[in-house]
Amino acid sequence: EGFSTRLTAAGGTFSTGQYNLSHGGAFERGWYSLNAGVAHTAGDRDSSAFRSQDGTVTAGYVLSPSWRTSLEGRYGHFHVEDPGPLTAPLANSYARVGRGGFTVALDNTTGRLWGNTRVYSSFGKHYITDGFRSTDRTTGVRLFQNAVLAPAVTVQFGTEVVNYGGQARNLLSR
Questions:
Q1: pLDDT tens across 77-86, in order?
Q2: What's the predicted TM-score (pTM) here?
Q3: Which among 165, 95, 98 has a CA at the least distance from the CA of 131?
């Protein structure tokens, strides 16, 4: 039980930096955490910069000595420049990507049986100056259990159902 907050920062050559903030709390039967980060660099050459931002929020609750549940949401975005090879530099070449998602979890643990159920989804959007554009998504449900049948025999069983989708195209290809 209690709270914890942490801020970290690091710097380097080429205006490189990483900054992270995390905060969490735990109560009698619940917990939460918040995390955010930023990273960047100017790169070692012209047009080789990078920057990203990301964040995650998680909360959970202990339902009983054998069961607990949690929910997590996340999102991140980055921009990266591509200067190309030294012998054939590229002008204004970059990619921007954003990705996010969530997971709802239910975990169980007993003396001889443990497992989990997950409902999850992720999505993304990609923009690359070579003409590539895409959006995608993945949604699924995963159920797994482990059972100890004898001291040296554990059996795992489960299933997963996943649905993928999205669209991709290259604007420069016809």
A1: 999 999 999 9
A2: 0.85
A3: 95
Q: In a 10 Å sphere around its CB, with 0-12 CB exposed, 13-18 middle and 19+ buried, how is residue 81 labelled?
A: buried
Query: pLDDT tens digit string along 8-66?
Result: 999 999 999 999 999 999 999 999 999 999 999 999 999 999 999 999 999 999 999 99
169 Cβ neighbours under 8 A, 6+ residues apart: 132, 133, 134
DSSP 113: E
The residues, ordered by sequence, that sit 6+ positions from 86 with a Cβ below 8 Å of its Cβ are none
Give the number of C-alpha atoms closer than 13 A to the C-alpha of residue 140, restricted to the C-beta side.
Answer: 15
Closest CA to 106 of 90, 118, 122, 96: 118
